[in-house]
Amino acid sequence: MEEILLIDDDVELCSMLADYLGRYGFHVSAVHRGDTGLKEAVKKQYALILLDVMLPGLDGFEVLKRIRGASSVNILLLTARGEDVDRIVGLEIGADDYLPKPFNPRELLARMRAILRRSSGAEATLEPTLLRADGLELNTAARTVSQNGKRIELTDVEFALLESLLHSPGKVVTREELAEKVLGREFHPFDRSLDMHISRLRRKLSGSGTEDDLVKTVRGTGYQLAVHSGASTPKD
Amino acid sequence: MEEILLIDDDVELCSMLADYLGRYGFHVSAVHRGDTGLKEAVKKQYALILLDVMLPGLDGFEVLKRIRGASSVNILLLTARGEDVDRIVGLEIGADDYLPKPFNPRELLARMRAILRRSSGAEATLEPTLLRADGLELNTAARTVSQNGKRIELTDVEFALLESLLHSPGKVVTREELAEKVLGREFHPFDRSLDMHISRLRRKLSGSGTEDDLVKTVRGTGYQLAVHSGASTPKD
DNA sequence: TCCTACTGTGACCATTTGTTACATTTTGCT
DNA sequence: AGCAAAATGTAACAAATGGTCACAGTAGGA
Fold first, then answer.
1. Is residue A235 part of a domain?
2. Looking at chain A, which terminus has fewer C-beta neighbours within 10 angstroms, N or C?
3. Are B204 and B152 in contact (CB under 8 A)?
């Protein structure tokens, strides 16, 4: 059931829409003031917000702007009586679409679906690419790494290295594999640069006092990310 | 070569625009009266009609209405006075877009292209195409960008650059790709202009203090737009 | 015409990455 | 155990890569 927030001071319209949209699989929460609407909009994660322009408490445009400052939730603007100026400004401020009042509920439904279709498609690119193990967290989308909540700055090679290790925590990753994935070239027995990068990575990760070292060497084979706490991401 | 019909009584403006647009691959036919404009509009199939509102012979709105009666050709309205009334009425009658005079030829070009793009594609609505991530919002229809609700002014190259990155937030885009899409040429290893544009773009985006920089460098490969607040990753 | 904004280029600098050399550890052998 | 060879760790330096300043060229607008 998709959660919809309806911000409109017309109580009767609200209940009518809640009823209508309810029949099509939407759950509508309605508030009738701009300020409370804004609060609600940022508090909860709605699939879509229907926002009227003429509002008591806080103007609809203002609400729109402030929501946009905090979130990229879908917003469909409802403009009071044919005021097309509103449409224009609304679109430029960042509404996903607009609908002039009075509107046909059917058309509203169609537009809502269009917006949701678009955004669900786009969402596929926003995969939550988090790799975790043992207090380590690597976010490939944000390209950040933190250890026990503390941010760690890594260079690109170090990042790729940790990413490869974190892909299968506890498993040994061969030098050959690492060379290919991290350095993008074949491994040569006398190439020491991998060792260097491991060394640098270790220095940046805390708990590098010989024992408890997160990155363990497997002599003759490769490296492995030590896993102490059982909580990890089963990826294979 | 796209055929454009320009209906405007300002002869000088007409020749200036014909010249300007000609340089961008449009062929502009100009007429200076409403009635002759109407005739021309229905006689031939134009890709787009630029229609001034204040016209001798026949009022611009009237022309618009009558053209619409016979054809669904693209129409961009040029409003003489900045009076919003014009805009409103124009859109309600059925113009695809409007542009208040005096306008920047560049903006006209951008809007013309937007209309043509829309009409050649499937949709013919006024829906904006919004690309978002992490407080950033890029509106390809209005050609605007804002960050956390605040408008940001970008040059064409910067806009194209951000657009390319925003197409796949959190993913690395190679230099080769960017060079082709943004600069329209092949990437040459010693070409530093991409770097410059990235640099300039970063400066305009807030949060450019090394860390949490929205535009991340992936050494040896390209760039990536960092996504921190994945809309799909609720922390609780 | 001048003025302005945008784009591209060369130069210079900081950071990252690779290499060499040497220290240290491990392993195998006697 | 003692020793040598092999593997790994790391410091120091060199090379590559990217960031940005400053300037030049260009195009558009006044």
1. no
2. C
3. yes
